[in-house]
Amino acid sequence: MNYYQKCLPLLAGIVFSFSSCEQKETAVQNEEKLVVSEAPIPTEKIDGMVWIPGGEFVMGTNEADAYAAEKPAVNLKVEGYWMDTHEVTNAEYKKFVDETGYVTVAERKPEWEELKKQLPPGTPKPDESVLVAGSMVFSPPPYPVPLQDISLWWVWVNGANWKHPEGPDSDIIGRENHPVVHISYEDAVAYAEWAGKRLPSEIEWEFAARGGMNGKRFAWGDELTPNGQHLANTFQGNFPNENLGHDGFIGTSPVKSFAPNTFGLYDMIGNVWELTDDWYDALKYARLAGQAPKLDKGMNPCYNPDNPYAMERVIKGGSYLCAANYCVNYRPSARQGQAFDSGTSNVGFRCVKDPETKTLSLK
């Protein structure tokens, strides 16, 4: 959901509810086997990145308890690529801003002419006092609340942005090694281009998160906390009011706080959601499996039946706010839409890079 769509119900009494790949594949049962790649390992080395060998794998899931947008599981093949070992940090994003002078979307005053394109026709323009730079910040209530109304824990904060994650009175001092947040798709693409990289596709992201394993519920196996060990920064307790912090953290955590997966990637699950380059399509896997018609090229590239005017990119991996009693999105197959022109205090990103011999196709 667009930040402003989340904000307008609180300020104007308007209520709103919270990528499409053209490959032809078939639905499959989840297969518990290692992915084998025949692609050669590049001789080059890239600082801060690891080589993801690519190969055939099972994307999505057929689990009964999974969300509909993750089903059915499909067989896909992806070519090798480089991927950042960790989410882009505040320090890394600051270097980019210092060198380029880039101003993020959250630091700009929203333009009504652009905003209304994602709202139902006839939506009245809000007062100018509402159209100010800012972002959505997680603000836990002091007591249990109904879980159907996100406005009870998401608050629009004027002046909130990547440099001021909780608002103007906050900063990132001491959080230089935490993932940068309040980043929109545009902001992430700008950084990636500056770094000579790009955002991953959803397919590349999920393949990397699985670490070469198929058929596992979590990135490390079938148990969330094997032997009582927390392997990612998620929410323990009663969401949204009581985070017990059993994993050692209440908000974001420094990158590399938990062990990497078998590819050497940190925080592919939890900490912050990660942006991908794909438009969000709630029926993507069904379309890949031939169980739903393809999106017409003249239609909105994004399909979210709960928000028909949405223009959303896929985010993956869940965040420190994913909880067993609310959203079990701390799994490789989990996926959600994020308005292309918005970020939140729990959305970040990492980049990928093609090898020099990359062929521009996914099979």
What does this entry look like structurally?
The protein has 363 residues and is α+β, with helices and mostly antiparallel strands. The chain has helices at 3-12, 90-100, 112-115, 185-194, 202-210, 284-288, and strands at 49-52, 55-59, 74-78, 81-84, 134-138, 154-158, 237-238, 242-243, 273-279, 312-316, 335-339, 347-348, 352-353. The strands form five sheets. It has a four-stranded mixed sheet. The longest helix has 11 residues, at 90-100. The two termini are 31 Å apart. Residues 1-26 have low confidence and may be disordered.
Please report the distance between the alpha carbons of the first and last residues: 31 Å
Global outline: globular
Structural class: alpha+beta
Low-confidence stretches: 1-26
Give the % helix: 10-25%
Largest sheet: 4 strands, mixed
Portion in beta strands = 5-15%
The tally of helices reads: 6
Please provide the count of β strands.
Answer: 13
Mean pLDDT: 87
Radius of gyration (Å): 20 Å
- The helix/strand order is HEEEEHHEEHHEEEHEEEE
Arrangement of strands in the largest sheet: 11-10-9-12
Quick recap:
This protein is α+β, with helices and mostly antiparallel strands and 363 residues long. Helix content is 13%, strand content 15%.
Strand and helix layout:
Layout: H1 3-12, E1 49-52, E2 55-59, E3 74-78, E4 81-84, H2 90-100, H3 112-115, E5 134-138, E6 154-158, H4 185-194, H5 202-210, E7 237-238, E8 242-243, E9 273-279, H6 284-288, E10 312-316, E11 335-339, E12 347-348, E13 352-353
Parallel strand pairs: 9-12
Antiparallel strand pairs: 1-4, 2-3, 4-13, 5-6, 7-8, 9-10, 10-11
